[in-house]
Design brief:
Number of domains: 2
Radius of gyration: 18 Å
Structural class: alpha+beta
Shape: globular
Oligomer: single chain
Distance between the termini: 41 Å
Strand order of the largest sheet: 5-4-3-6-7
Order of helices and strands: HHHHEEHHHEEEEHHEH
CATH superfamily of the largest domain: SCP2 sterol-binding domain
CATH architecture of the largest domain: 2-Layer Sandwich
CATH class of the largest domain: Alpha Beta
Strand content: 15-25%
Largest sheet: 5 strands, mixed
Length: about 210
């Protein structure tokens, strides 16, 4: 059942935690930063949460105006969860918390890494040349497709198929993370089958090379 617990504290910090301080709440917000997701997408991205718990968190976040449901137009016609304008204001807070958390030791193995987590790192670490032409990439991570586009020195990432990608990469979040932090080379990932490349390899190498950890 959704919780209505409160700290009973007038401080703004406590009042914010009354809304997003429950277990899994901020991770749900994290998963929606790059765009709307279906319930099944959220379950795949957060394997440690039960369906009932995720349903409760979504209901709570909806009741507080952080998350909203909407139906995608045909042919998809599926129900997705998305951040409201108010929920989107949490983005810099969540990203700052993530930056601080990088100093905390990793939990014991096995650990999970969601596609959104890695793509947020990519977006925050990529330094494209503002003078470079627009480039579009197709990333397929854990059976979900994402569009990555660089334009005017900015990086845009959203779920869904790109129209005309220059290059594509199919891999898992952990491998992409190792490609971004330099612990695995693209050549090694392609050779051992951990990644599959389509399109212009030089374009993909440029993208990976523009990341500043």
């Amino acid at each position: 059942m959704p919780t209505s617990r409160t700290y009973g504290d007038a401080c703004g910090i406590a009042r914010a935690l009354d809304v997003v301080g429950e277990r899994w709440a901020l991770l749900v917000v994290r998963e929606l930063i790059l765009g709307p997701q279906r319930f099944s997408d959220l379950r795949r991205a957060l394997p440690g949460v039960s369906s009932n718990m995720l349903t409760d968190r979504l209901r709570e976040l909806e009741s507080h105006g952080v998350v909203q449901q909407r139906r995608l137009p045909p042919p998809a016609a599926s129900v997705v969860y998305d951040l409201t304008d108010s929920g989107r204001e949490l983005e810099p807070i969540v990203l700052a918390l993530g930056g601080w958390g990088l100093r905390v030791p990793l939990p014991p193995a096995p650990v999970h890494l969601s596609a959104t987590s890695v793509l947020l790192f990519l977006r925050g670490s990529l330094r494209p040349n503002p003078q470079a032409a627009v480039a579009t990439y197709r990333f397929e991570l854990t059976n979900q497709v994402w569009t990555v586009r660089t334009q005017d020195g900015q990086v845009h990432i959203e779920p869904g198929e790109p129209a005309h990608p220059h290059a594509g990469l199919r891999t898992d979040p952990a491998t992409l993370n190792s490609l971004l932090d330099g612990s695995t080379s693209l050549a090694t990932a392609l050779t051992n089958g951990a990644a599959n490349l389509t399109g212009d390899e030089s374009a993909l190498r440029w993208l990976l090379g523009a990341v500043t950890p």
